[in-house]
Amino acid sequence: MKIKSQIPNAVTLLNLLSGMIGIIWVLNGNIVSGAWFILLSAFFDFIDGFAARLLKVQGEMGKQLDSLADLVSFGVLPGFILFAMAKTTSQLEWLPYCTLILPLFSAFRLAKFNLDTRQSDRFIGVPTPASALFVSTLPHFAIHWPKIGTIVTAPFFLVGIAVTLAILLVSEIPLIALKFKSFSFSKNKFRYSLIGISLALFAWLGLAGIPLIILSYIGLSLVENAIGSE
Fold this sequence. Notes:
Distance between the termini: 52 Å
Mean pLDDT: 90
Order of helices and strands: HHHHEHHHHEHH
Radius of gyration: 18 Å
Structural class: mainly alpha
């Protein structure tokens, strides 16, 4: 095998490694540090696709390896984070296990994505990285707004988040993808709006703004769908 063709795969494996290290941190009781590895995995997930396109070595091997890495980093690790957060305060021993619905549906979502030919310029359902970024920044959100944080980190609320994200992952809702066929504002107003809102929220709140960015992403997509269907 040519070394050139394996560069994107090596970056994908760094995504997988980041996910595994994140899981170890969460298991050792350091939830916030473990959550940081989702952000690192997201960086490598972006770079591997960029490298594959740049080097013109895209192939089925890379696609399958990417899904396997994403399952760990954006499915299993977020599930462990929600489980650990719920277990910390839950009075019901069985309740935290309900959060594990998220990695199960993440696996289903990734398998579905690999077979779905409709997602060339739009996502159908919430992508696993978006779901994982929402979960990974919940601790930062809770720290930034302590009063709201007590609600957000309540065990039943965390289970509700896991179930809601699981449904959104496999839903048939068309969502915005930042894939520009042209740079016309009229044809990309929702993409530009999403970028503007995201930059503003991140500049204002930092990592604590990412859950709000994900909610804005879903909301703008729903508005775009409603306008487009009129």
